[in-house]
Specification:
It is built from four helices and five strands; from the N terminus they run E-H-H-E-E-E-H-E-H. By secondary structure, the chain is an alpha+beta fold. The chain has one domain: 3-Layer(aba) Sandwich (Aminopeptidase), CATH 3.40.630.30. It is globular. The termini are far apart. InterPro entries: Acetyltransferase_Butenolide (IPR053144), Acyl_CoA_acyltransferase (IPR016181), GNAT_dom (IPR000182).
């Protein structure tokens, strides 16, 4: 199996949608909202992808300042290709793009906790989420 890893190559929204659906991440992403998915791609400044020929099989999608913090918002590997080290390679390729002091930060689904511990992440309980503004336009 020859996997090719690429940094910041364009992918289209349908490729992204299909990959999310083929991975476990599709359950927690707006796969039926193509404008939202397009916005996710357009506003990411670091995307590392894995390809099997012309097929997109995995993605690490991040937003970063490249020096202090990198928020890894998606790490998705097609179920057919999981447990082959592709996720680890995506993480390593992402880190290679970052400065030496830049931390990789993510919010993981509870089922992924063991995976992230295994690949070297440390758990941090200090995460806060502010949901979008309500219809009234004010923070609840």
């Amino acid at each position: 199996m020859s996997i090719e890893y690429k940094v910041n190559v364009p992918i289209n929204v349908v490729q992204f949608q299909k990959l999310l659906e083929a991975s476990t991440l599709g359950e927690r992403r707006p796969v039926d909202d193509l404008p939202c998915l397009q916005g996710m791609l357009d506003n990411s400044n670091l995307i590392v992808t894995a390809w099997q020929g012309a097929e997109l099989i995995a993605i690490a999608r991040s937003m970063t300042d490249f020096h202090y913090g990198c928020y890894l918002s998606d790490l998705a590997v097609d179920k057919k290709y999981q447990r082959k080290g592709i996720g680890k390679q995506l993480l390593a390729s992402t880190q290679k793009q970052l400065g030496p002091k830049c931390k990789l930060i993510l919010i993981a689904a509870p089922a992924a906790k063991d995976y992230y511990e295994k690949v070297g992440f440390s758990w941090n309980e200090r995460c806060w989420v502010l949901n979008p503004l309500g219809d009234s336009g004010v923070v609840k």
